[in-house]
Design brief:
The chain is α/β, with parallel strands linked by helices. The chain contains 12 helices and 8 strands. Strands 1-2-3-4-5-6-7-8 form an 8-stranded parallel beta barrel, surrounded by 5 helices. About 40% of the residues are buried.
Length: about 290
């Protein structure tokens, strides 16, 4: 179970490093298996290069080798991304998560060449990240399998297409040792039942222990226990994305007093009705988990 960490901000818009350290500590205490730093959930496009470096260092220093670090590094200019990977000090980073190029909508050959160039410039393991609802392009199974077979350090994919048929095809055709991770919080059990190995989750920012337990139940074949937790999470999970990510999870974390509910434009906080519904759903979920 991996968590896509949010970036806490102060009222003045600065990165709140104290809240970030506390969030990382909560992941350590909750049994999270690995952390995804500077992914989409971190509002990375709104961060300066210096802020990204400082956030990366903050998390790596706090973790101190106790959890693997998956670092988000993506973009829609292949050469710029290659240069960034080559220029940055990636000490303490265990693998790279790289989202498909967004907006310019390359064809499958373009996606293949993009990822092949990334794989060639580093020895770090690379996880592909397919999220067509955000990027406007779908990384198809043929391309995933081609990359998995031809690039030894492309070792997995975070799949957030929501297309279970596509996901099952990748799992069935992938070479041994190639990981498929769920990128949809509401589909984790379905994807793992089909052969996925885990998840990179938004929900886990707020409930690391409970979400880790659900993922571990699935990994151990205790599907009924996992599905019971999944049903308990359902209301909160759906509200997380009602006003986009990370607006929902930041509202939830603010209700948990873990950080202030601040985002950077163009993102704005969840609407009042969503925020109120989130608080009610959180209270209900907390009562359920306390009774377990």
């Amino acid at each position: 179970m991996g968590v896509a960490l949010v970036t806490p901000f102060t009222e003045t818009g600065d990165v709140d490093y104290v809240a970030l350290e506390n969030l990382v500590q909560a992941q350590l205490d909750g049994g999270t298996d690995f952390l995804c730093v500077l992914g989409t959930t971190a509002e990375t496009p709104t961060l300066t290069l210096e802020e990204k470096r400082n956030i990366r260092k903050c998390v790596i220093d706090k973790v101190a080798g106790r959890l693997p670090i998956l670092l988000g590094m993506g973009g829609n200019c292949t050469q710029s991304l290659v240069n960034e990977i080559l220029d940055e000090d990636l000490t303490g980073v265990d693998a790279i998560l790289s989202v498909t190029p967004y907006y310019n909508k390359p064809n499958q050959e373009g996606l293949y060449r993009h990822y092949r160039a990334i794989a060639a410039c580093t020895q770090l393991p690379i996880y592909l990240y397919n999220v067509p609802g955000r990027t406007g392009i779908n990384l198809l199974p043929d391309t995933v399998i081609r990359l998995a077979n031809e690039c030894p350090n492309i070792v997995g994919v975070k799949e957030a297409s929501g297309n279970l048929a596509q996901i099952k095809e990748i799992i069935e055709r992938a070479p041994e040792g190639f990981d498929l991770l769920s990128g949809d919080d509401g589909l984790v059990c379905d994807i793992m039942q089909a052969g996925g190995v885990g998840a990179i989750t938004v929900f886990g920012n707020a409930y690391p222990k409970a979400f880790t337990q659900m993922v571990h139940y699935m990994a151990q074949g205790e599907c009924e226990k996992a599905r019971q937790l999944e049903a308990a999470f359902d209301e909160v999970c759906s509200l997380l994305f009602a006003d986009g990510n990370p607006a929902g999870v930041k509202a939830l974390l603010a209700h948990q007093s873990k950080m202030q509910n601040n985002l950077r434009l163009p993102l704005a906080p969840a609407r009042k009705e969503v925020d109120e519904a989130m608080h009610a759903a959180m209270t209900k979920l907390d009562a359920y988990l306390a009774a377990e």
